[in-house]
Amino acid sequence: MTDITELRAAALVSKAWPYEEARKLLKRYPDGAPAKGHVLFETGYGPSGLPHIGTFNEVLRTTMVRRAFETLSDIPTRLIAFSDDMDGLRKVPDNVPNKEMLAQHLGKPLTRIPDPFGTHESFAAHNNALLREFLDRFGFDYEFVSSTDYYADGTFDAALKGVLRHYQGIMDVMLPTLRAERQATYSPVLPVSPKSGIVLQVPIEVLDAETGMIAFVDEGERIEQSILGGKAKLQWKVDWAMRWVALGVDYEMAGKDLIDSVVQSSKIARVLGGRPPEGFNYEMFLDERGEKISKSKGNGLSLDQWLTYGPDESLAFYIYREPKKAKALHLGVIPRAVDEYWQFRGNYAEQPIAQKLGNPVHHIHNGPPPAETLPVTFGLLLNLVGVMGEASKAQVWGYLTNYVPDATPETYPALDRLIGHALAYARDFVAPTLRKRAPVGGEVDALRRLDAALAELPADASAEDIQNRVYEIGKTGGFETLRDWFKALYETLLGSEQGPRMGSFIALYGIANSRALIADALAKAE
């Protein structure tokens, strides 16, 4: 058991990015807890769409920084998941029913639009419920905050008055960033029309900052109206800054595409007399062609897709690593992420404290991972179910029992779940790509020698003994390199260009079954 003093000392110098981020917060409050009594982390969400992998990404990484800070400091922390549900609906989403009904409410706050699904009091309430269900599913510790609630209940009143007091200063920040035609109509404050209920994009006149009174033109009529009590919201960059100041947000990260927005909102926060939060800009995910993932293009990998083919720990592992580097996010990265997660998890127990704090599993599990080990790799499972074809979990366990004497779903529950992922991945992604070719030239003789060598081994031969025989044949079989021999085995026996350690595969699949694969391959050569 690591002593908390030793843990804290190691965390203070750890190069793991969550600790580097957490140390920014230590410097932010060198004299201890802030006046509000806690350090506040925030992650934002626009409820016009459904939760997705980007939502998981941001909340997970923020949580990792929060946990790292809690290792370094005794100052209490909070994490709020802020829903910008006062935002006006700009367009009708593609993946919802009753689109004609929604089209009639364009421009209105999401909390004042009927739920097209018919299950909640508003469209925002429906999507907010999905967000909370989504975050709860992964066990995140957070407090949900509704923008509409805070605008309406007075939480933002003091900050909103500050926006009117510093109206010109905010305009001075924003106008240079806008095109000339946008400058003419831009206003940091968006009043809600008393006539149509739409969030208006119109110039305003500040009448009295202390009472929140403004004037604006609505359908040709001059209206005087307070911005308090939910009768207005702010443009989002101004809203972001106001929220930081009103709530005292200390840490919030954002994607690289929002770097300019962070700069502008930070300037506005200072105009309002506040201090922008700490944070960093993470890189975006790319598709297999190296293009930025876009929800509208549909060229990304959804959260449900990943969790169909790999466990959530593997996704957390992939998200943890190199957050400031653009990474491909497609089905092909899942097997490696699964196996690397388990490799790092297997190394954890024997590592010194400094290495443990740099191990991704430490941040995934907020400390030591569960003790369970994995007797086979995910890659080996995929090769097994690939040659089995249509298979059930029970059939896969039948092979595993021969390979690992005590292998049962009860003794290896994580492996049992992983078999389900492997069956799904092999069925949907591997099987359509498998193309076994006939052996050619010297490959034919080498396969015959391998068959003879396997015939001499007992049925329970170890993976190491089998691997030695495979090596011997590859070294003396006329191949330029051992790589060529293994490539021939993969292509003729498994139907893929890459594959597992053949000794492990043959031991798992069984010598008799493996000889049958060889016989099938040799039959094609005749």
UniProtKB/TrEMBL annotation:
Note the PROSITE patterns from the entry: AA_TRNA_LIGASE_I (PS00178)
Q: Which UniProt keywords apply?
A: Aminoacyl-tRNA synthetase, ATP-binding, Cytoplasm, Ligase, Nucleotide-binding, Protein biosynthesis
Looking up Pfam families in the UniProt record yields: tRNA-synt_1f
Q: Which InterPro entries match?
A: aa-tRNA-synth_I_codon-bd_sub2, aa-tRNA-synth_I_CS, aa_tRNA-synth_I_cd-bd_sf, Lys-tRNA-ligase, Rossmann-like_a/b/a_fold
Q: Does the keyword Hydrolase apply?
A: no
Q: Which reaction does it catalyse?
A: tRNA(Lys) + L-lysine + ATP = L-lysyl-tRNA(Lys) + AMP + diphosphate
According to the UniProt record, what class of enzyme is this? ligase
Motif 'HIGH' region: which ranges? 47-55
Q: Name one GO biological process term.
A: lysyl-tRNA aminoacylation
Segments crossing the lipid bilayer: none
Q: Which SUPFAM superfamilies match?
A: An anticodon-binding domain of class I aminoacyl-tRNA synthetases, Nucleotidylyl transferase
Question: From the UniProt record, which GO molecular function terms apply?
Answer: ATP binding; lysine-tRNA ligase activity; tRNA binding
Which positions in this protein are listed as binding ATP? 295
* Entry GO terms, CC: cytoplasm
Q: Where in the cell is it found?
A: Cytoplasm
| Chain positions of motif 'KMSKS' region | 292-296
Q: Per its UniProt record, what PANTHER family does this chain match? A: LYSINE--TRNA LIGASE
Family assignment from sequence similarity: Belongs to the class-I aminoacyl-tRNA synthetase family.
Specify the protein name.
Answer: Lysine--tRNA ligase
Q: What is the lineage of its organism?
A: Bacteria, Pseudomonadati, Pseudomonadota, Alphaproteobacteria, Sphingomonadales
